[in-house]
Specification:
By secondary structure, this protein is α/β, with parallel strands linked by helices. It has 2 domains: 5-149, TPP-binding domain (Rossmann fold, 3-Layer(aba) Sandwich), CATH 3.40.50; 156-336, Rossmann fold, CATH 3.40.50. It is 36% helix and 16% strand. It contains 15 helices and 13 strands. It has helices spanning 11-15, 19-29, 58-66, 79-82, 102-105, 120-129, 136-149, 156-167, 180-188, 210-220, 232-237, 242-248, 263-272, 291-297, 353-364; strands spanning 5-9, 33-35, 69-73, 94-99, 114-117, 173-176, 197-200, 226-231, 252-258, 301-305, 324-329, 339-340, 347-348. Helix 2 packs parallel to helix 6 and helix 7 (136-149) runs antiparallel to helix 15 (353-364). The longest helix is centred in the middle third of the chain and has 14 residues, at 136-149. The radius of gyration is 21 Å and the shape is globular.
C-alpha cells in the first residue's frame, strides 16, 4: 500500500479534456497534484502546490523526491522536468506513465516503470472508478510544506506576480510571455476557481508571444477581459500589436515586469560566463523605451509604477472594460530562484537549516 502518492499532470491532460476529472480525483482521494510548468493551471485554487523541474517550486520538487508513487498523466517528463540524471527523479517512487504518444513512452525514465498508451481523460475516468484510501493526512503534510517554503525563494518578481494574482477575479485568463516572467508566473501566480487559464507557450512560444496570446484569448471569449503578463524584452518583440488591442478595443490588461535587462539571458551570462554580457544590459547594448508614451500614442491608457507595491493605486484598471498598460519597475538584478542544478539535482540557493530540517521531518514522517 502506497503512503505518499502523487498525481503529476502535464499539458497532455488538458488537451485530452481531463481538467475537471483531475479536480474530481483530487477532491475524492486527497492525493496531492503536482504539475509541469506548462500545465500549472490544471491544479489551482485549494489544491495548488506547484510545478516540478528546473525552475519548479521548491516544495513541489521536495515533495516528489519523497513520494513513493508518481502517476504521471500527459506529462512528457523531459529533461527540464526530471533533470540530467534520471536516477535522481522521484528516487523513492514507483512510476506510472500515461501518454497518448508512443514515442514518448519508448524511452524509459525508470527501468521498472509502468506504461499506459492511452488517452489521459480515459485513464482519469478509470482512476475515479477505483477505490483509494483517503490521503488527507499526506495532503495536509504537503500543504504544510508548501506554506513553510512559499516565501523562502521569493524575489521581487515573485512578489509582483503574487500581488497581481491577488487582484484577479475568479477563473481569470492570463497570457504569459517567455523570459523570467514565465518562471515567476508559473511559480507564484495563484488563480481563484478551477476554470482559469495560465497560457504558457513553453517550447512553442518565443519571446513576444504573450500579447498575441492575450488578443486571441480575448476575442475567442467574446472580447472578454484578459491579463497579459510580459517583460520589457518580450513586449518589444510584438509591440505593434498594441494597435490591434486599440483598434478592436479589447479589454486586455498588459502588465509589464520591467527590469530593463533581458533577464533570463543576462542571468546565464552572469552565472556561467563571468559577467560577459552581450546585448542584454544597458551597458552591453540593450535598452528599453518609454512604454507608457508608446501605449498612449496607440490610444491605450498607461502608467508607470516604481514598485509592484503601487499596484493598489490602479486596482480599478484590472476590472474595467478598457485596455491598459501598467509598467511595473523591478531591480535590474532580479534573479530566478530556486533553480535545480542538472548535475546533482540540488536546489539553489540553500534555505535555512532549521526550515530544511522541519520540511524533511514532515515529509518523511
Amino acid at each position: 500500500m502506497y503512503k505518499k502518492p502523487i498525481l503529476l499532470v502535464g499539458s497532455g491532460a488538458r488537451l485530452a479534456g481531463a481538467s475537471e476529472l483531475i479536480y474530481k480525483f483530487a477532491r475524492k482521494t486527497h492525493i496531492p497534484v503536482l504539475t509541469t510548468m506548462n500545465a500549472v493551471d490544471l491544479a489551482q485554487d485549494d489544491i495548488r502546490i506547484g510545478f516540478i523541474g528546473t525552475y519548479g517550486n521548491r516544495a513541489s520538487n521536495m515533495i516528489i523526491a519523497e513520494a513513493d508513487l508518481v502517476i504521471a498523466v500527459g506529462a512528457r517528463l523531459g529533461l527540464r522536468q526530471i533533470g540530467h540524471k534520471k536516477e535522481f527523479f522521484a528516487p523513492k517512487a514507483k512510476l506510472i506513465r500515461v501518454d497518448i504518444d508512443q514515442n514518448e513512452l519508448s524511452r524509459n525514465v525508470k527501468e521498472d516503470e509502468e506504461k499506459h498508451l492511452m488517452d489521459a481523460a480515459d485513464y482519469m475516468k478509470e482512476l475515479l472508478e477505483k477505490d483509494f484510501p483517503d490521503y488527507s493526512e499526506w495532503f495536509a503534510k504537503c500543504m504544510k510544506v508548501k506554506k513553510l517554503l512559499d516565501k523562502c525563494d521569493n524575489v521581487e518578481g515573485n512578489d509582483a506576480i503574487e500581488k497581481i494574482g491577488s487582484f484577479l477575479p475568479e477563473n481569470s485568463v492570463c497570457a504569459i510571455d517567455i523570459g523570467q516572467n514565465v518562471c515567476w508566473s508559473a511559480q507564484s501566480l495563484a488563480l481563484k476557481g478551477e476554470k482559469g487559464r495560465i497560457l504558457i507557450g513553453g517550447s512553442y512560444g518565443s519571446m513576444g508571444c504573450a500579447l498575441p496570446y492575450a488578443i486571441g484569448a480575448s476575442i475567442s471569449r467574446g472580447n472578454a477581459i484578459t491579463y497579459c503578463i510580459t517583460g520589457d524584452g518580450g513586449l518589444q518583440m510584438n509591440i505593434q500589436e498594441l494597435e490591434t488591442v486599440h483598434r478592436e478595443q479589447l479589454p486586455i490588461k498588459i502588465l509589464v515586469l520591467n527590469n530593463r535587462v533581458l533577464g533570463k539571458i543576462s542571468e546565464i551570462q552572469h552565472v556561467s560566463y563571468n559577467d560577459r554580457y552581450a546585448q542584454t544590459t544597458p551597458e552591453s547594448g540593450y535598452t528599453v523605451p518609454n512604454f507608457e508614451k508608446i501605449a498612449i500614442a496607440y490610444g491605450i491608457k498607461a502608467t508607470k509604477l516604481e514598485s509592484y507595491k503601487e499596484l493598489d493605486n490602479v486596482k480599478d484598471w484590472f476590472y474595467d472594460n478598457d485596455p491598459c498598460l501598467i509598467n511595473i519597475m523591478l531591480p535590474e538584478d532580479t534573479l530566478l530562484i530556486p533553480k535545480i542544478t542538472w548535475d546533482t539535482c540540488s536546489i539553489k540557493p540553500k534555505i535555512e537549516e532549521s526550515i530544511q530540517a522541519e520540511v524533511e521531518v514532515i515529509l518523511r514522517s
